[in-house]
Every structure is written in C-alpha cells, then in structure tokens.
Amino acid sequence: MKNFFIQKNISAPEAGMTVKEYTAQLGISKRLLADIKFGGGDLLVNGEHVTVRTVLAAGDVLKIEFPKEHVSETLLPEPVPLDILYEDDHVLVVNKQPYVSSIPSREHPSESIANGVISHYRKNGVQSTVHLVTRLDRDTSGAMLIAKHRLAHSLLSAAQKKGLVNRRYLAVVHGVILQKEGTVDAPIGRKPDSIIERMVTPEGQKAVTHFQAEKAGHASTLAALRLETGRTHQIRVHMSYLGHPLVGDTLYGGKNEGIARQALHSELLSFVHPMTGETLVFHAPVPDDMKTLIEHI
C-alpha cells in the first residue's frame, strides 16, 4: 500500500515561491509539514529530493509524499456495518446507525464506527487511520464526515472552524415551541462531578444553536437545528435549557415516550471537498423510530 501523495505543476505566477510558502498556500500546516519532513514523508521537485527552502520555477513538478499513517494497536478492525453515502480517495461519508459509538470509549470499548472504518480500509487496501471530522453521540443517528488522510483532515477541520462544514439536524422535543425560529447563544461546560453530562454555564465554551419549529403537536415539536459551534451534547443541552428536552433524552430531562434513545438525527451534511473544491451535499434518511414519532406529532 502506497503512501498518500499529491503532485502539483508549478505555474508562472507561483514561480519564485519556496516549497514552504507553496505548501502553506495549499493549506498544509507547519505541524503537518514537519511530519512530512521528519516522519517518513518526502518533498521532491522533478524527481529530486529537496528542502522546504528550495525555490520553485515555472514548469517544476512538486510531489509531496505524506508519511505512512499508523493505526493505534487498540483500534481493532471489526465488522461494524457501514452505510456509506459517499467515498473517494480523500473523504468518507457514512449514515451512522443509532446505538453505535463514533469511537471506542471506556464504557463501549469496541464495535464503534471507527472500528468498522478500519475494517473497511483493511479490506480495500487503504493505508490510513480514522480521522473523524464530525462526530455523533452514540445514540444519535445520521450523516458523519470522515477524512481519509491527514491533509484532508487538516483542511476540513480548518473549514469547520470557519463554519464551512454545515450540518442540519432533526429532533423531536417535548412541549410546543412557540417561536417559529430562534437562536440559543449560551456557553456550555462540564457539569461538576460528572465526566459525561454538560450544562449551560458562564464558565463554559461559546455555543450557538439555531432552531426552527417544523411541526408542532399537543405535546411535542419537530425541530430543525443548525450548529454554529460543535460542543459536546450541544443540541441536547441547549434544547433542555430552553425547556424542551429531546424525547428519549433521559440524561437531560427527556422521557422515553415511543423511542429508546434521544430523538436526534443528522439529516443533512454539506461541505467543500478539500481537494477538488466542489460543494457536496448529503441527506441521511430518517430512521424508522424517529419517523414513527414524527408521524404521531
């Protein structure tokens, strides 16, 4: 299995740049460039090994070879089913099923999406570890974005910080949301004496959630939500803070009424492809348990 590499033809406007300047322009961070230099990667111009100080000329062919990726010995390949919405050499989008963790944890050390991805990579000759860009709680379903190498992960993470990785969630919450739409801007931090639970607190990190009431009944509401930030349990905490905890979310005040998990689904995911610049949009079908809840609103 060959290491991932990219190859670029240097144009006249790019002539005179050093390799270091050019790679920065590609979005390769200083940390990643150091990994390339010292971690088993390589920099070649017209087939010759060069340093980051080498000055590029028009017509040069720059090849950037990335170091071999090492999978943690604790992350074992397991035949976890993957509902793949899209895959190429750079990104993987899956529709995560509920009751499956994104990554192994102390409570659930195996059978995670990450274990399934490693198994999928092994079967298909992909030399990579798992780079999660968007992560979903164990009981949350829907579209999840995974980068297949370090450069894609670096570029997508930077895009996410700029709000360029968009996610739309559907949730069924207790009570009737009277506002047609609104925004919760309330910082979230850990709840004292708990390693799992979060809460709204002035000492927390900035968290912004936009919501829209899609359908309201006598006792519950279907809400569409968009995250501006990505804090742990953000939607669950913010909706509980509003007085509308998610149905099934017993951790944050919800009740198991017609569903055995929090009624939350990542319905839409859109992002700019890190290598092609194309905007990609994916929809994940709503699972049956949430469909039933929605039909009964």
Automatic annotation (TrEMBL):
Pfam family membership, one: PseudoU_synth_2
Active-site positions on this chain: 137
Keywords, comma-separated and alphabetical: Isomerase, RNA-binding
Enzyme Commission number(s): 5.4.99.-
Catalytic function, reaction form: a uridine in RNA = a pseudouridine in RNA
Enzyme class: isomerase
Keyword Manganese: no
GO MF annotation: an example: catalytic activity, acting on RNA
Biological process annotations from GO: enzyme-directed rRNA pseudouridine synthesis
Transmembrane segments: none
Gene3D superfamilies hit by this protein: Pseudouridine synthase
Keyword match Glycoprotein: no
Family statement drawn from the similarity comment of this UniProt entry: Belongs to the pseudouridine synthase RluA family.
Record's function text: Responsible for synthesis of pseudouridine from uracil.
Stated name of the protein: Pseudouridine synthase
UniProt organism field: Bacillus amyloliquefaciens (strain ATCC 23350 / DSM 7 / BCRC 11601 / CCUG 28519 / NBRC 15535 / NRRL B-14393 / F)
Protein's gene: yjbO
